[in-house]
Hints:
- By secondary structure, the chain is an alpha+beta fold.
- The protein has one domain (4-103).
- It has three helices and two strands.
- The protein has helices at 4-20, 50-55, 71-78; strands at residues 82-86, 89-92.
- Strands 1-2 form a two-stranded antiparallel sheet.
- A hairpin with a 2-residue loop joins strand 1 and strand 2 (89-92).
- It is globular.
Amino acid sequence: MHSQRKIETLATAVHEFCRWWDIQVRSVLDVGAGVGYWSGWYRKNHVPTKTDLRHNVDRAVTDFEIFARSGLWYRNELKKYFHQAGAGLWVAKTSTIMLYELEGAPS
């Protein structure tokens, strides 16, 4: 479990990555787990994976009334429409953003 300060740092880093690529963020899918610290930045989906629920979330403060899927399922669904840019970021295949070879995951 990360502190609110760590999550705020992560959110800032994500925005700085997007600014580097000249991306205007229009929507976000938060696939992390936690107590909702991202909500200060975004109010969007909160989807922990099965592994997150078993090993990473604080059961005392996390809502378990969800249908959890594996990380592989999410990656397979995302890769239909997005390229993995690293650090948990995915860029739409329709985007004109150019990623250097080492900035993204192998195709």
